[in-house]
Design a protein that fits this description.
Number of strands: 4
Strand order of the largest sheet: 2-3-1-4
Structural class: alpha+beta
Radius of gyration: 13 Å
CATH class: Alpha Beta
Order of helices and strands: EHEEHHE
Strand content: 35-45%
CATH topology: Alpha-Beta Plaits
Mean pLDDT: 98
CATH superfamily: Dimeric alpha+beta barrel
Distance between the termini: 17 Å
CATH architecture: 2-Layer Sandwich
Largest sheet: 4 strands, antiparallel
């Protein structure tokens, strides 16, 4: 199953600092899941000022439970960067 995920960072004064401190561990985790075929594409969401304040990704997992397990184990979640998720099931065209 394919999913579109919008993950929003916290809005407190330390949110960006947490993101930057955790970024290397998060990217290493993403790389592992991308190599396994679970992460199709993703990137940071930006504020009007160009500051990272969330993430968007398209993912492919067997079911919603597997996606949730990934999201809940990601360093951004474990370290309080991602605060909320908007998840929508989707289907990419075969092009």
């Amino acid at each position: 199953m394919q999913f579109l995920v919008i993950a929003r960072d916290g809005t407190d004064a330390d949110a960006l600092s947490r993101r930057l401190a955790t970024r290397d561990a998060h990217l290493a985790n993403v790389k592992k899941y991308k190599e396994a075929g679970n992460i199709i594409v993703g990137g940071a969401l930006l504020s009007a000022e160009g500051t990272m304040n969330g993430s968007a990704l398209i993912a492919d997992f067997p079911d919603r439970a597997a996606l949730d397990a990934y999201l809940n184990s990601d360093p951004y979640t474990l370290n309080g960067v991602w605060q909320t998720f908007d998840v929508t099931e989707m289907k990419l065209p075969p092009v």
